[in-house]
Each structure stands twice: as C-alpha cells, then as structure tokens.
Amino acid sequence: MRQTSLPLENLQAWSRFNNVRLFDVAVEAHIIADNGDDHGGGLLSKAEHTEAQPLVAVPIELVLSKERVEEAAKVDKSLKELIEAVPTLVQNDRTAVLLFLVYQMTINSPDNNDHALGVNNPFADYVKFLPKDIPLPISYTADERELLIGTSLAEALDQKLISLQREFDSLKAATETIPWCEQAWWDEITGSLDFADWKLADAVYRSRALELPRGASVGMVPVVDMANHASDDRYNARFEVDEDTGSVLLVVRDGKSVKKGDEVTIMYGCGGACEMIFSYGFLEEHARSAREMFLGLSIPADDPLRKAKIWVAQAAPGVRIYVDDADQVRWDSTFVWWACINQEDGLEFRVERTVDGDTELKALWRDSELDPNTLQAKLLEDYLRDVFVLRGTVMVQQRVEEQGMRLAASEDEYDNALPNTQIRPFVYETVGRLRKLEMDLLTRTYEALEEQKNRLLESPVVREYLGQNRSGTEVRDSPEDFS
C-alpha cells in the first residue's frame, strides 16, 4: 500500500497544535553522532537541563494504546466495524494498535478512494510522520535471512513471521465481508492491503512502543518515541507517568544532566544482542557480549509423559542463557526441569473432574499434588538434587553444543556472501557481529557447563546414584550416560 509522508520538521508544529510540551527540546530530522554517522530523526536539547527536569510532556489522550483504539471506535463507525469483526486481535495490546495503524495507513494512502472513511484525529498526521522502511529482521530479504543460519535470531524470526502471517490471515478472513474492507483491502482491483503492510505496522509498533510505569498501558507515545537509544551507562533521559494528569513525561535521568546541544537519549531495553536486532534492527556500537540468548528445546518423542508435561508445564520450550551482573554465565528454564524428570523419579499425572463437570489434568510429585510453578524449587530441595541438576546441565550443554556446531558450520556461507542488491551492507555487518557475539557466548557457556558437570559428577549423591544403577540396585531412574 502506498503511503503519505510528512517531513519530521513538521512534527514540532504538530506538537504545539496537540498540546505536547517541549521544554527547550527540538525535534531534529537528522542527528549527527560524534563519529559523523547520521542517526536519523531524534531529540536535541536547546538548553541545559539538570537531574529530573522535564524534557517532554505528552497528554494521556495522545498515547496510542489499546484503550485509545477502543475510544476512537466510539466515534468512528468504520473503525468500530473493524474491531468488532476481530475481537481476538483487539484483546491484545499490540494487535489492537496494529489494527489502528493499518486502518489509518489506509485512510492516508493515495490508493484509498473512499473519502468518507475515518474521522479527523491527531493520529491521522502522526502516522504520516512514522518511517515507512524499518530495517527489522522481518523485512530481511531471503538472502539476508540465510546469513542468520546458526544464530538464535534465525529461529525467532521464523516463528515471528509465522505468527504475523497467521494474524494477517485471520484479519482477512474476518473482514472480507465488511464492504469498506472488501473494497479498500481485499478486492483484486481496488484492494491494496498486503502482508508487507501488516509487517510494517508491527515493525513500527515494536520499535516504538513503551511499557509505561506504574501499571499504565503499553503504547506508542508521540515525540517521546523520537528519542534514540543509548547504552545503559550513556543514556540521559527516562520516561514516567504523571500521577495527577496521566501525562507521559520524558525527564532527565537520575545522576545525569543534559547540556545545550546534547542529544536526548533513552535506553530501549536491556535484552541481549538478538533482542536488540529483533526489535530495533541494530546492535549497540559498544556491544562486547551477546548478553543472553534463547535456545529452543524439545522433550524426546519417546518420553511417555511428553504430552502431559507440555500441557501442564505451560512453559516456553527452551532455555535462556545469560551473563549475570558478576559476568558469570547462567541458564534459566522451567521447561528443562520438566524434561529431565520421569515417572521413576516420582512424577505422575491424573485426570480429575471439576465441579463444572469438565476434566482437568493434574500433576503429582511423589503422590502429592504438584503446583507446576513450584517444580524447580521441589527438585532443588530434594535429596537427589545433584542428580536432577546434573541431568539439566547435560541437557543444556548438549543443546549449546548443537547450536555452536550449527553456527560454525554456516560460517563459510556467511564469509562467502558479500553485500549486493539482495544483501544490504548494514545487514551483513550487523549479522556478522551477532554471529561472533553468540559464538563467544556459546563457547563460554559450554565451558562453564563442563566445569559444573564435572563438579556434580564428584557429588557423593551422584556417585552413589550411578553406582546403584550399575549394580542393578533399585533407585529412581536417570540417564545412564552423563557425558
């Protein structure tokens, strides 16, 4: 769908007309970094600001959130038709805003012939200021996605694209019979909405939405969302919600000051390298570690309790590897603990009937009902604790080794690929940095798990357990080979 754009220089005027207050702060279309790079649009301080002083104040009615979409639908018949047709999408903060974005994009588009569509609101022009090309991985070409093979981003991207396609298909199926949707979106001649538009709306939301403090909603905050990212020791501003008015404030970060001519920056998130690229399309210039990564895991198909474990656990099927504040490698996974215990250890399942007459699957640990959220704590308090930890350690180490081998095996393909019409230079460079950082983290993790495994193998509990297994003495079962 073709889009109408407004230059960022006009955002300052839009702010005045919509009661957005800028306290000696200007919206700039081009922010030039110290190294000469153009960071694109951003916020620039025109005076000195000290700790906790306000920089920008945005009225609560300008926060584009699920609640704002529902309010807008009360005075917009066409929008109301849309959100009533797709209740499952409106229930979610993200997809509710995505619906509004594609709706407003449609109204603004030169392809739209229905001039009666929509009502005047501040967001009509705000959407025109939003970028039309955001370099998130969901916009990568097929050749660029090949560069990701072996990284944790490859699997995350595959799942994201499947999810986006499912949402788009659901939108189409639910709105094909709405006259304006059929004409503006789905008709073979006049329709102009396609999957790329849904991906663009998602990229806009994901790269700009803020999780507001004090229980406020998640949403896009005009002008505040112009602030660029800086690392955790460099950013100089933070956002908060005014308790009296509900307005969103951008204020100087504690312990910092902002001088005249400084760029106003915030920290987008504290996730790892994969998350930064996935959600924002770039890596920090000073990134020296992948910080964390998520690796998918599965329970073996021959585990007789596999389906029951997955159903009751309701846990993400994978393991999070991360570096803590003390620069030590750790892993965290509810799923691993479910995967590494069996019936012989004391895990059982039974089907119970509820008071409503429905059936419910319950987990039991050594004949007592088990709260799924307490499994890890129970295993770590058990007399076989070291055995269970050893099983989890081995499972994670094997997955880390598998990922490292996959990443190493694809290195030649990456090296032989060169920037061209299908591989943009900044994507090639970004993916190359991600590959190196993740290989470093995988190597550190494997070595740390090897040390932990060797320590556990010296545990008296483990030695006795393995010795009993070999001698045929009856004990709770475990994998025979921990190597």
Automatic annotation (TrEMBL):
CDD domains in the record: SET_LSMT
Source taxon at top rank: Eukaryota
Domain annotation SET: ranges: 18-269
Protein name per the record: SET domain-containing protein
Organism in which the protein naturally occurs: Exophiala sideris
